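Q: What changes when adenine is included in the input?
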Amino acid sequence: MQITVLTLFPEMIMQNAGVSILGRALSSDLIRINAVNIRDYANNKHGKVDDYPYGGGAGMVMQAEPVYRAYEAVTKDLNRKPRVIYLDPKGRTFDQKMAHELAAEEELIFLCGHYEGVDERVLNEIVDDHVSIGDYVLTGGELPAMVMIDAIARLLPGVLHNGESAQSETFENCLLEYPQYSRPEVWHGESVPEVLLSGHHENVEKWRHEQSVRKTLQNRPDLFEKYLSKDL
Ligand code: ADE
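A: The predicted holo structure follows.
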């Protein structure tokens, strides 16, 4: 998968992308990430890409032309328009289902806004989806883009080494994941639940399912409703 991020802060993307599982996926060429600096497409020698909002109001607006020129530069050699996602607190909320949908694309472009937003006209022209990562406002789209890229990348074939882990997890079946334990058997006086030491696979599965149900009911009753209404 090829991911391009249009941003005023490419280093925020590339620093994050280079580590951990995402870094490994980049090194093994399972995913390619290219951060393009919108400032390089400013039409003035000062690299200025923002201006005052028409109609007044606080803050500055990212201008349409530099964004459009950056977009044109990265898409000019493609034979089909890639899906363009604008990180936007007013957008549709990102979730695991959307992560799966986007993981099926060959090419994605993320557009990160700053200041008071981006001129609506260029958004209307190039953006396919306005996506929010949650009901809070951040200073820019870079962290939300990284959140989405991370969630999408781990669904790509070969990125996770343990083939199981993308399946039995939180959100994949409308239940939160069960608790995990590792050595030592007793830590700070607390033992690992007996059943996990029993070697009885069926009982382990039953216990984990019960734990998942309990945690979901307690922390996410909204998700539990969904679980109940699923055709299981
Ligand atoms: N930009 C600022 N806040 C955001 C959010 N919550 N989601 C996506 N993009 C944003």
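Observations recorded in class: The beta strands are 2-7, 32-37, 50-51, 61-62, 83-93, 107-111, 129-132, 186-187, 190-191.
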